[in-house]
Specification:
Blueprint: H1 3-27, H2 30-37, H3 51-61, H4 72-86, E1 92-97, E2 109-115, E3 118-121, E4 129-130
Antiparallel strand pairs: 1-2, 1-4, 2-3
Length: about 130
């Protein structure tokens, strides 16, 4: 069987999740988004996938957003967290705010993923105050 056929269920699952995320984000609080990103079940569904395969696929599926343009790191972070967890990894989802904007009406926020204590996806380019 060609390799791409073995990856098809993952790619479809990721594509569908990427399309479901914006309406969930538009209608609900952060808890609802985190619930969407946190998979249930103990059995890794995508254990054969490497971290780099998952992160590349998330970047590809999020490449040209029609919605959530201003929240790209949030969309990518939630998807990466979900699918890394579905592959059996233990990712950590981080939220932060740029310190100089924390008390302003328009704070600059960022979302990134770490694995084993190292930022692996969308690491912040400036110091951030961790929120979660």
């Amino acid at each position: 069987m060609p390799d791409f056929l073995g990856r098809l269920p993952f790619r479809w699952h990721l594509w569908i999740a990427a399309r479901m995320l914006p309406p969930i984000a538009a209608r609900g609080p952060l808890e609802r988004l985190l619930g969407f990103a946190t998979p249930g079940g103990a059995t890794p569904a995508y254990a054969s996938l490497s971290v780099s395969e998952i992160l590349t696929a998330v970047k590809n599926v999020s490449a040209r957003p029609w919605v959530m343009r201003e929240q790209r790191c949030l969309r990518e972070g939630l998807l990466a967290f979900r699918f890394l967890a579905l592959a059996g990894y233990r990712p950590v989802l981080h939220f932060g705010v740029a310190p100089e904007t924390a008390k302003s009406n328009h704070p600059r926020a960022h979302c990134w993923i770490s694995l084993d204590g190292k930022a692996i996806f969308n690491p912040p380019t400036e110091p951030m105050l961790n929120l979660l």
